[in-house]
Amino acid sequence: MPVASHGDVELSESLTNARSRALNQFLAGVELKAFKIAQAALRHEDDALDAVQDAMLQLARAYADKPAEEWKPLFYRILENRIRDMQRRRTVRGRVIAWMPFRGDEEEDELDPIALAPSPDPSPVKKLELAEAMGALEKAIADLPRRQQQVFMLRTLEGMDVAETAIAMGCSEGSVKTHYFRALQALREQLGELV
Amino acid sequence: MSGQGGEQLTDFERLSRQALEESVLRIDGRVRSRLNQARQAAVEAASARRRPLFSRFFTLVPTAGAAAAAVLVTVVLWHRGPQIELPPVPDSVHPTDLDLLSDSEGLDLVQDGDGSGSFYEWAAEPTEAGGSETDT
Q1: Is the ipTM of this complex over 0.85?
Q2: How far is A97 from chain B (nearest CA, A)?
Q3: A73, A106, A128, B34: least buried by Cβ within 10 Å?
Q4: Is A9 within the bounds of a domain?
């Protein structure tokens, strides 16, 4: 029976550290895009943050030992499940609140003008045009059916190919192509040549 | 511009991507900070999940060593042989009898060649003359 020597333990520790660094690097690379995807689906900043945070934790706990190449589709699959859970919970809560005599309108988040203010980048005319296009695009994406929205964000923003997107969405590659085609068609109809 | 695994993007897709990437760059500091904290927590969780393997190794070795030593000591003590328990000495036994019993030569005399203890039996037998030879 092989016995772990001190050298083996040191090697294992360095492998663990390398794995942690790789995981950190991967999450740093996807976190902002993942937040944008979650925000488009949930239309709420804090909910989107919670969804991304949960997805990160679940990936780290359950799949950190998987090959790094598999992390991206797994991460987006987990995120999608979290988003769906939150949407379901929200739907149930909405139904319950609709039946209640007192509505919690006063608890609605007020828009924070500081948070809404754009970052202090110099904004030439081109950037302003892009910002307008960006706002219109984000609104149009938010109005897409969920699956079309998801496939559009994964393919366009995250740059995932059809196979990866299919894994992330838990559907066939054919479905990915169909949803993506329909998403593009809907956005073109809505935005025209705006973008 | 190509994307999505080398596929050619249309102008619409390219501009969409540009707009979305721009929106990612505009994410404010509060969100970035929270995402950073979430990432650190996730990496820590992954490290903690792996750590028990090492700590288990370092706690298992001394424990296993102690258990092996205990087993070894038990085995050694077990094979030293059964302890001989001496029967209680009855009150009737005289101290001189004890001397005889503890005397190895005396035992030889008790258990002589044929194992019958004939010497002491012979010595204790009354003689034909009406007394034992030891009385002489």
Answers
A1: no
A2: 29
A3: A106
A4: no
